[in-house]
């Protein structure tokens, strides 16, 4: 898998139901904040899972709920409803104090603004969680802290105070601190948000190395290029996870438009033995293949149009493309050798979506004039879709 | 029209109510303390003088052999005399309970209802007393165990008793006025009767007087005028063949306990100045912290065009509002508390309290301090706070992010075995050195004054011990008339447990000044040669030695009143009407103003002078068993009295050594109670300082607390860290307070001693104050830290790290 290469984000898979070996499971999480202005729901019934060894990025615009999602996992905040399981612990049921203790032993948190204690040296900052967690003997603490500082490239700077080192060095020290009690999971909230690009790169490489060592990392970022280098990306908008198929197939859409599609695309299944449906070019529809492989056959007036077209998981086709490929009435037969799962929006709903934003039509049209549209391979965990 | 600047001030005040409360409390506590002290200063002394003057007190009091009303009338014709009244004063005993007799001093007047000098205020019952009736002063009324309407039993000269009906309770502010200073506390029960009752009590010549009360025209504070009139009065008395035994002069505003009130005021002023200072520190500390929290807002203001002066004016307005809020709280509270204290002091010092009222000087002073002090305290931190650049303010680069370790941090780092959370606490304690210093100053001074109070009490008690050195007998017996010493010695030694009996000669004497006028009256005491019942504290010269003839040792008051008087000088004293020269052989220290003028000479010489050789009316008895307590001494006294009564010898007064000690210390109880209150007030200022500092420290470190939570710190860990910091500050302050207590104790003790005794004190110290303050500091530190610690544990990480 080329998740570490600088490609676009990999939004797949995000299963609707978590499998038994999920390390972190978030089920139907809703989080509502009450303030003077009224109520604001930051997360709306979200379900997500994370598996051991994954390097997952959470992206979204400001206010989309990324940090709130992460706060649910770290216990920094509690859901209004829903459950959060990390390992064997339902963290949303713990008290603040118990949560702190559990967090110290099981999670390492890296903050955007480093959050080192200013009166402690880098070495002391790294040692501090060991004192709080009690997992290492007093004689082991200093040695371990020194080796962690060496791991993050800060050998020789252990007695410096945070204010005496650069931002990148502080962030590396914060990563070393997060690793102090050898937690299986690292949570990083905008870890490179306050760093220059070069330093950000160094920090990211550190994360990559930790993944290779078997850690599981969940990283919040608004940097799409960084997200593209992780195993998997969750895209949030307005407190909800965008359907990964939509995000993957139509990356040029605005997030709110993606979210609309997420809400309105309906699942369909085409059985191989069934009478293949006919797609009418004069209609209004958009189909997105999520499983199986579809063959399209039929007449299209466009000189470049292929007589037969194959659509695999991640591929989409809309009535706009048929209309563009050839004028007049055309149709396509859908044939399948195996059950094909689709997401479909059609009719007035599709029209309404098109009319919401001119960019939607452009996004469909722009995507369709790529004749070598790649068929995205589903990851091994792909099942029946996403959470909607 | 909306005014954003004013809106900002109001929202700053209201949005962080905890912080506003702290600032207001810091100012209010200082205002409160100042208000209490200044109210007492202005009111207590004024009411004392006013109340005493209202009693129309005697300016010249002459005690002599018996004289009649004609002399009294004649005295009124002496130039300078406004009014003269005669009275009969005698001491006897009252039966407080079965077999228990207490001393009573009875004032008998021809017509108490017509009395204009030394007027009393009726508190209960009726005035004047009728025939066979008695009225008693309120001060020692409880000792009589009697209530209004009861019959009280009085001993008469024959040794029999009479019963008088108790018909009234009065307040007599002049008690102690015609004795030496300290007379009020040493005075026995005071009773008031008419001449008919005097007759019924078998007093000889009941229609004659032995005490002349005179008020003068003009200014009684004019000492020369007073002495001039007194001389004329004395001449008149002596020309009428009355033998003067004592003469006291006193201005109409010189309350008998004025010396004590002045001592209280000395304490007030000393501690008052201190409290104002402490409060200033406290306000500075709090405002500095407040302004530090406002740095970012100041940066924003600057970035939108505000000039420094404009920003300063916003925060000055905020400081003004804080001051006014504090004034609104402190002013009424301080007046209430002050008047409660004055009410207490009024009873203790036997003065009048004219009731709650507004004191304009106090209001103006508190208002001035409330307005000015926060402004002054805020000036420096405000100027510094507004001086930083916009970039620095907005970027959040704070001064508390050190780049290098200070020596203290390095020292802490060397303590290898400390847990890191504790290291964090230690470093946090010393992180804001300015704030720590201010907090420590406040708490240290408060603690030092608190500890000093106990040490000062020890110093005061030292004076009591000094008085006792002059009265070392277990029992002091005064007989109705002089008896042969060997006879009384034999009789008393019949009583089991008696080891030694000494007969002393005692007389009243007056100093005859070089110009022939009469100066101070003094008690002249004459123990037998080689007496071990006096252990004088000689400050100059020597004590009386066997064989001395006209040698005299004077107490320190003589030195104060007559600074030119030296050892070896000859002075003229009038004893029993005879003027004689005496040679001053030494000066001794007793208890200054409290004990009054006194002198010692040899029994052998004085007894001859007063024609009582080999005889005495005053005896000192020592028990064979050392260390008797008060009740044991009283039991011995009763046995002695019974033995003497068997031989028909009447005892008119019997006091135990322990009761003398207790009576002498009664006056100081008022002072030490007051000292303790002031110490508590000062300590409160310090405590609020500590509480404020801890709250501010926690408030400023909310982000840090969030991080600690994020990396695994439990509630318990956080509580321990905050408590450790509070305890460390508390213990540091205790250590510094203990050191500072020594010079402060000396300062306070000397200040009090000079006003009470006219001389510096002997410094005394007790570990009690140190121990109590240590316990108090521990409790205060915990309390001052608990709330901020609880608040810290209740903060959610999301709140403090302000995600998104």
Summarize the structure.
The complex is a heterodimer of chains A (388) and B (804). Chain A is an alpha+beta fold and 388 residues long. In chain A, 31% of the residues lie in helices and 26% in strands.
Query: What portion of residues of chain A is helical?
Result: 25-40%
Helices and strands of chain B: which structural class?
alpha+beta
**How many strand elements of chain A?**
18
Note the quaternary state here.
heterodimer
Number of domains of chain A: 2
Rg of Cα set of chain B:
34 Å
CATH topology of the largest domain in chain A: Rossmann fold
User: What is the CATH C level class of the largest domain in chain A, in words?
Assistant: Alpha Beta
Residue-averaged pLDDT of chain B, rounded?
85
Most extensive protein-chain contact, per-chain counts: A-B, 40 and 38 residues
General shape of chain A: elongated
The overall strand count of chain B is 20
Radius of gyration of chain A: 24 Å
What strand line-up does the widest sheet of chain A have?
6-7-8-3-9-10
Overall mean pLDDT of chain A? 81
Tell me what the structure shows.
The complex is a heterodimer of chains A (388) and B (804). With 388 residues, chain A is α+β, with helices and mostly antiparallel strands. Chain A has twelve helices and 18 strands. Chain A has a six-stranded mixed sheet, with helices on both faces. Chain A has a four-stranded antiparallel sheet with strand order 2-1-4-5. In chain A, a hairpin with a 2-residue loop joins strand 1 (24-35) and strand 2 (38-50). The two termini of chain A are 26 Å apart. The model of chain A is unreliable at 1-6 and 368-388 (pLDDT under 50). Chain B is α+β, with helices and mostly antiparallel strands and 804 residues long. Chain B has 24 helices and 20 strands. In chain B, the strands form two sheets. In chain B, strands 1, 2, 3, 4, 5, 6, 7, 8, 9 and 10 form a ten-stranded mixed sheet that branches. The relative contact order of chain B is 0.12. The interface between A and B is large, with 40 and 38 residues.
